[in-house]
Amino acid sequence: MKGELGHCQSGPGAMVASTNAHTGEEPPISGTNGSGTVFFSGCPLGCVFCQNWPISQEGVGNGMSDSELASRMLDLQHRGCHNINLVTPTHQVPAFLGALETAIGMGLRIPIVYNTGGFESQAALELLDGVVDVYLPDIKYADDAVAERYSGAGNYVEINRLALRAMYGQVGRLKTGEDGLAESGMIVRHLVLPHGSAGTGDCMKYVADIDRELHVSLMMQYFPAHGAHEIPELSRKLTVQEQEAARSAFFDAGLRNGWIQDEY
Asked: How many independent structural domains does the chain possess?
């Protein structure tokens, strides 16, 4: 509010890079008409392999008032999108909540999906209790040293795991309607990294410890985007052996629900 900007480079208002219908999310999120994505500018993380780095780390986007963002969300609803999908909203929660209040007054009725890297403060999550219908968080790492090296977040593991439990406490397991679309609940995402760097086995065990019935999206499509090509262990795609090890880790943890997304 005083004009000082932190790591996320966010002021008090919304900064949005794009709004559009997206068909590439998990089936209960994208459905047939797409998920109404709102890509917020900036990010609390600094992942060296980020595929959206111009938006997340270079500030591509435009400022929007509450009414402007509300109108964008209403437009997505009018286009038939199944939900409003907030992409990396962590650092812009107050701006979103202001726009949401306006949008509800204008007739917004579709579910709210909170699509996040999972580096969330408990205070922010308390503001979202009863607001978010579907949480779509990452569990990126099992080791803080790795999180520091690849995302600049040396305290990621504790914060992420507390956040996952808080989200689960709010919305529980995934619930879908007769049409197969998500109405509420949590889907946990994990991007498998080369050389097992993400700690996939430990991550899967932690999710199973929360609830073995949770839906997990295990993603194998890693490629060295942004600055990852300069880091030797991240400079290539996954091997077949690494993909098989990740699949085994999923099932060995006792998980059964979700999706295993193969390499592109």
From this structure: 1
Chain centre to alpha carbon of residue 77: 20
* Residue 91 belongs to domain with CATH number: 3.20.20.70
> What is the residue type of 120?
E
In-domain check, residue 3: no
Domain enclosing residue 157, as ranges: 14-261
Alpha helices in the chain (DSSP H): 27-30, 53-56, 66-78, 93-105, 122-128, 144-151, 156-171, 200-210, 240-252
Closest CA to 135 of 176, 167, 89: 167
Cβ pair 17, 40 in contact under 8 A: yes
Top pLDDT among 53 and 263 is at 53
How sure is the predictor about 9, in pLDDT bands with cuts at 50, 70 and 90?
Answer: confident
123 burial type by CB count under 10 A (0-12 exposed, 13-18 middle, 19+ buried): exposed
Instruction: Describe the crossing of helices 240-252 and 200-210 by its angle, rounded to 10 degrees.
Output: 20
Dist CA 258 CA 189 (whole Å): 10
The C-alpha angle with vertex 16 and arms to 13 and 21, in degrees rounded to 5, equals 140
Helix (H) or strand (E) holding 134: strand 134-137
Q: Is residue 8 part of a domain?
A: no
With respect to residue 5, please indicate whether it lies within any of the assigned structural domains: no
Is residue 208 situated within a structural domain? yes
Structural tokens at position 157: 């593991």
Q: How many secondary structure helices (H) and strands (E) does the chain include? A: 9, 10
Specify the DSSP class assigned to residue 2.
-
pTM: 0.96
pLDDT tens readout for residues 182-209? 999 999 999 999 999 999 999 999 999 9
User: How many CB atoms are located within 10 Å of the residue 240 CB?
Assistant: 8
